[in-house]
Design brief:
By secondary structure, the chain is an alpha/beta fold. It has helices at residues 45-48, 61-64, 67-74, 89-98, 183-188, 195-205, 222-229, 248-257, 275-281, 286-295, 314-329, 333-346; strands at 9-12, 22-26, 31-35, 51-55, 80-85, 111-117, 123-129, 141-144, 150-151, 155-163, 167-175, 178-181, 212-215, 218-221, 230-233, 236-241, 263-267, 300-304. The longest helix is centred in the last third of the chain and has 16 residues, at 314-329. The radius of gyration is 23 Å and the shape is globular. Bound molecules: zinc ion (ZN) (2 copies). The site of one zinc ion has 4 residues, from loops.
Length: 347
Amino acid sequence: MFSEKLPIDLSLVNGVSGDPAIFGFFPRTGDGILLDLGHIDSLSNKDLLKVRTVLISHTHIDHFIGFDRLLRVNIPHGREIEIYGPPGIIGNVQGKLRGYLWNLLEPDQLRFTVHELSKSGDILTARLTNSSRGESRFEPEYFVSESVGCLPDETKLETMLLDHATPVVAYVLKFPCRYHVLPEVLNELRLSPGPWIRQLQVAAHNGRKEGDIEIDGKKYSLEKLIKKLLNPIKPSSLAYLTDFSFAWDNIKIIKKTLPECCAIISESNFKDADFSKALDKKHLTTRQAALIAAYSKASELQTFHFSNTYTDTFDTVAGEVQSFFKEFSAEPQMTLKKLIDQEITRI
Ligand SMILES: [Zn+2]
Ligand SMILES: [Zn+2]
């Protein structure tokens, strides 16, 4: 999806115009995640069973109808699933679970941990399980969690709440710096691979340089070996932005939260010419998505969630986004601010 190599493989489950659902796979750990839960019928059971974490932007039906499929696939396996979402998500998941009869399940066979994110930054977390009391009301057991957790492969998660006439959560995945071993240096030093490589990578990751590391009975300076043998791959990040209106309140939050050079997956529901429809539906146009990405100093922008009214012209919509993004990325921040102001006044 992006030219920059991210440590996650991403696929738009329903293409650029179907229900929002993105399957992310971490090749290093074998874990999967889902960004939104529109229809997921085309995902295999094998892929769905890799998913332990689901990030929901909001529960408009096109973003949440796939919950039942995830639930269905998971029943025989009884794995715990973690869900993040906007205010009300605990009740939404509870409502879905209560919609079925579960009298033959083993106690605690269904286990969901649901994190409800609020504008103040507070997180309300609840566990929803089929209880050992033999009833399946899925009463939430609340507990305190002070920060959003980590995703697979040491990926940090950040969230922000945007407005779409309802709170919508946008997500930023921050991938850690990686240290790759240079094979030619390994050969040159006549070292054979072993658990010491992981120790060296951990030391580099933690910024530890003092002292030595012992390999095959011989001591090496930690600092010198890290410098010579490990190639640091710079940290990268990915933002998922969908379903919000083009307003300074939203744009400022995005600008503040996104690191520079972030790869962005964003909605661009409408073409520039249809900006009044975007205003009406609290969505973005191609121009607006590109303005936000350029203003946030994004490295790349991929858009989706195109309106179905553009049948057969999806390439035109995608092309419009990319030409705006190229144009705006060359502009200084002051000009972009003015362009955003003008776009808001145009509204
Ligand atoms: Zn939507
Ligand atoms: Zn929506």
